[in-house]
Amino acid sequence: MKHHVVLPHLHTAFRFSVKKPAVVGLILFGVGGSPAVLAASSNADAVSRGAYLANSFGCADCHTPMKMGPKGPEPDQSRALSGHPEQLKLSPSPKADESWAWFGSVTNTAYAGPWGISYAANITSDKETGLGAWNEDDFVHAIKTGKHAGVGRPIMPPMPWSAMSHMTEDDLRAIFHYLQTVPPVRNRAPDYQPPVQ
Ligand code: HEC
Fold it and tell me: 58 CB less than 6 Å from ligand 1?
């Protein structure tokens, strides 16, 4: 007798609880299920992971020029990630001796050593002077092979491509996606100069 009272009640509750999630599911599917929305949200995830990796790896330490601030040298955020400033003329580097092998410029974007002189590249999204015209594969191949854009001359120290090459392809792609969101700064970093013989 008791069952007759309880069962119809449970049945109603069950029907109700099934119906609700089904409606919620339909709404979610209708909004979030469209390929464009899914692509946008996974790109946003890649960008934030890329930002996290780039910040942890210290790309800005070398790719953002230092300027003198009230408390000493500080990164010039108006030129974030734009590499060695093209108009900055440097005096000849000090001479290496048995104790000192390499030197960095006052902006920490130019480096003189046994490899010659290398200049941190513009890695902003600028199309002509940065990475704006690169695609994901150019970037992944450059870091995995240590060759310019994955096909050119060897990438010189102190660019830590060999450490970075241990990252997964997904993480490297995420960094590339993040770099493509960095505001473009027009700055053609000087070409690498091999050592004077
Ligand atoms: C210790 C300094 C240093 C750090 C840290 C550093 N870079 Fe570099 N990077 C350089 C220098 C110097 C060059 C130029 C090398 C050359 O001309 O051969 C360079 C070049 C590059 C290039 C151009 C490669 C090519 O194919 O020509 C890319 C892209 C790049 N860096 C990305 C990054 C990213 C992304 C990070 C952080 C995850 C990073 N770098 C961290 C110093 C650094």
Answer: yes
Angle between helices 169-179 and 35-57 (to 10 degrees): 90
Domain of residue 57: give its range: 42-87+102-197
Atom index in ligand 1 nearest the CA of residue 58 equals: 5
Nearest CA to ligand 1 atom 41: 59
pTM of the predicted model, to two decimals?
Answer: 0.84
- Nearest protein Cα to ligand 1, atom 37: 59
Task: Please indicate whether residue 118, judged by its CB atom, sits closer than 6 Å to ligand 1.
Answer: yes
Q: Is residue 20 part of a domain?
A: no
- Number of separate domains in the chain: 1
* Beta-carbon contacts of residue 113 (< 8 Å; ≥ 6 apart): 96, 101, 102, 103, 157
What are the CA-CA distances from residue 109 to residues 62, 64, 157 (Å)? 5, 7, 12
- How many secondary structure helices (H) and strands (E) does the chain include? 6, 5
Residue 118 lies in a domain: yes
Distance 118 CA to ligand 1 centre (A): 10
Walk along the chain (197 residues) in steps of 10 and give the mean pLDDT of each run: 45 42 46 66 91 98 97 97 97 96 98 98 98 97 97 97 98 98 98 91
